[in-house]
Amino acid sequence: xxxxxxxxxxxxxxxxxxxxxxxxxxxxxxxxxxxxxxxxxxxxxxxxxxxxxxxxxxxxxxxxxxxxxxxxxxxxxxxxxxxxxxxxxxxxxxxxxxxxxxxxxxxxxxxxxxxxxxxxxxxxxxxxxxxxxx
Length: 134
Prior knowledge:
The chain has helices spanning 2-13, 37-40, 47-59, 77-86, 103-106, 122-133; strands at residues 20-25, 28-34, 67-73, 90-95, 115-118. By secondary structure, the protein is α/β, with parallel strands linked by helices. Helix 4 links the parallel strand 3 and strand 4 (90-95).
């Protein structure tokens, strides 16, 4: 989560929504990114979408079942859908999305085999989001 938080700080300094994500495979970082929607002018350039693509390319396959995603904020519905289809093995969030834009609020589910947990470095992740929006 430390690396994901570093990515979020990078986004913050680019005036992007400060969300960072990292994908781990066999105890190694294979993908890391931060939100780039403003930079690319592309609404789909969320940190999670970028790392899913990077990890899939790295592994040479569409499913990333043996991977873990660390993301600073609970994924939105779009990213949760992509995570579902990627069949990622595990998702670890820093903090939930209190703006009711996260997938948990909507009732969207991750893949049945995906493990989910939240609250890792929660205060730091939440604080950065609050600093950006307030």
